[in-house]
Amino acid sequence: MIDKGYIQNWGLSGVYYEDGEKLEQDPKTGLYYRPSCGELFVIKEQSQYKHLDFEGKTVMDVGANIGSFVHLAKSNGAKAIFAYEPMPSTWRILVVNNESEPHVPVTSENVALVGGEEQTVEFFLSKKYPSCHTTVPVRGRECITVDARNFWEALHDNRPDVLKIDIEGGEYDFIFKEPMPSFVGQVAMELHMKNKKQIELAKQVVELFSDWHCQKPFKFNWHVTTIVAHRNKPSELGSMKDHLRRVGGM
């Protein structure tokens, strides 16, 4: 499959089309989104990251989608943002949303971040929701080839204070390969658990941050959970290890 879409602005300020579909604008955030793709839900679910401290911080967003998390970081005082989104059509909307809020510098790349050194990777497409596209092979899905970059290389280049990852299971390809550098002080990560193997991998990811402070409850009885951890900011939930024990993960 070759991506042939492109963003159009038909000479009308604030009117955009992505591959023929008119983009709507969320009145609360000002973000453009595709009504048919469930992207308004993605915009609204950003409240799960409310415990992150963005003020004066450098932020790295892996799986940036249309820029909802980027907007959250901008709105809460981030000083610089690095965003990565592999899907060309989704990345184009991310660019439009970035341009509509130029007051914070955002560097966005149309690439997938991976654990190896490959320059391209297969990207498996959800039939309905672009936010569910993944680098993890899924039987029966159409796939495209997208550009790729090593996650750890990008991390060390950007040196973010805040790291967010939401890539539909692709997190397991790289997260175990190196220890998290000391310059990263906050991590938010969506962990995907579509089978027993991924459930165990999700628990192992939490263990990587066992001594960090847990800022958001998580659990392993659903196909996805989100962890939010601070390296130094205490929480009433205790450490990640404490909460992992409470939910039966250890």
Word description of this protein:
By secondary structure, the protein is of the alpha/beta class. It has a domain at 38-192: Rossmann fold (3-Layer(aba) Sandwich). The protein has six helices and 15 strands. The strands form four sheets. Strands 8-7-6-12-13-15-14 form a seven-stranded mixed beta sheet, with helices on both faces. Strands 1-2-3 form a three-stranded antiparallel beta sheet. Strands 9-11-10 form a three-stranded mixed beta sheet. The model has no long low-confidence stretch (mean pLDDT 92).
Tally of individual helices: 6
The run of helices and strands is EEEEEHEHEHEEEEHEEHEEH
For the termini, the CA-CA separation is 43 Å
Sequence stretches where pLDDT stays below 50 over 5 or more residues = none
Give the strand order of the largest sheet, numbering strands 1, 2, ... along the chain. 8-7-6-12-13-15-14
Radius of gyration: 18 Å
CATH architecture of the domain at 38-192: 3-Layer(aba) Sandwich
- The total strand number stands at 15
| Overall pLDDT level | 92
Instruction: Give the amount of beta strand, in percent.
Output: 15-25%
Q: What is the highest CATH level, the class of the domain at 38-192?
A: Alpha Beta
The major β-sheet equals:
7 strands, mixed
Described by the principal axes of the CA atoms, the overall outline is globular
- Fraction of residues in H or I helices: 10-25%
Structural class: alpha/beta
CATH fold-level assignment of the domain at 38-192:
Rossmann fold
